[in-house]
Amino acid sequence: MVDDGRGDVARGDSVADPCHGPTGAGPADAPADPAAEADARDRWLLAAHVDGDPHAFDELVRRHRQRLWAVALRTLGDPEEAADAVQDACLSAFRSAASYRGQARVTTWLHRIVVNACLDRLRRRAIRPTAPLPEQVPADPRDRLAERETEIDVQRALAQLPDDQRLALVLVDLQGLPVDEVARLLGVPSGTVKSRCSRARVRLAVSLGHLRNAGPSAPVPPGTTVGGGQA
Questions:
Q1: How far apart (Å, rounded) are the C-alpha atoms in residues 44 and 28?
Q2: Residue 160 neighbours by CB distance under 10 Å
């Protein structure tokens, strides 16, 4: 049996859900920390998948698909390519679940796989990613049109960043991951992540400087950091 850091769980044995206890039993004592509770649930789902549960991995992916998609989209700048990268990453995670060692949160492990899938696609590109074309917007809601135009400006500015700076900024500022966790994801020192984010913020501040004086009809999309942010 592969030692994946989840304890001794033999194939064929039932796996107790840490949040709900074993089948037929009352709720188990859940961790007080919501993040720890969520990770315990993720670990249980991953263990159940390795032990043959046909539904566990689908649930695990559903829990994290939106954040994984957001990372891929912000990194690659193209919805179709982002969807392909997430699909590649999920397939890789499905196949390599038994190799999970439990040394990091499951979310960190999943993000690392998505990041690698995105980096593989970036390496295969002959040119920088370009901003996706704007969606067709109804003629009436002008503030929605302005917001969409702002989103396109932000995406275009992100696309102009060097790959390493864009990826660090997406993970730290847009996804809200701690610097130390991003450093583990990317396999670089924490100081390198901070430096990449700092340089990226300066570039964005220049590229998006016109948004600072924009009226209320053109807000910066939620979660976008233009200058400042985590050092």
A1: 13
A2: 15
Eight-state DSSP code of residue 99: G
CB distance 159 to 129 below 8 Å: yes
Contacts of residue 61, defined as CB under 8 A and 6 or more positions apart, other chains included, come to 90
Domain ranges of the chain: 34-124, 142-212
Identify the residue whose tokens are 């067709």: 136
Per-residue exposure over 80-118, b if at least 16 CB sit within 10 Å of its own CB, e if not: ebbeebbebbbeebeeebeebebebbbbbbbbbbbbbbb
Topology, domain 34-124: Rna Polymerase Sigma Factor; Chain: A (1.10.1740)
Is the separation of the CB atoms in 129 and 76 below 8 Å?
Answer: yes
Residue 110 token pair: 């999943």
User: Which architecture does CATH list for 142-212?
Assistant: Orthogonal Bundle (1.10)
Report the largest interatomic distance among the alpha carbons of the chain, rounded to a whole angstrom. Answer: 62
- 203: how many CB neighbours lie within 10 A of its CB? 18
For each successive 10 residues of the chain (231 residues), what is the average pLDDT? Answer: 38 49 45 82 96 95 93 87 93 94 89 88 61 44 63 77 86 84 86 92 81 51 45 37
Q: Are the C-beta atoms of residues 86 and 100 closer than 8 Å to each other?
A: no
Q: pTM for the full model? A: 0.58
Cα separation, 170 vs 179, whole angstroms: 11
List, in order, residues 6 or more apart from 36 with CB less than 8 Å away. Answer: none
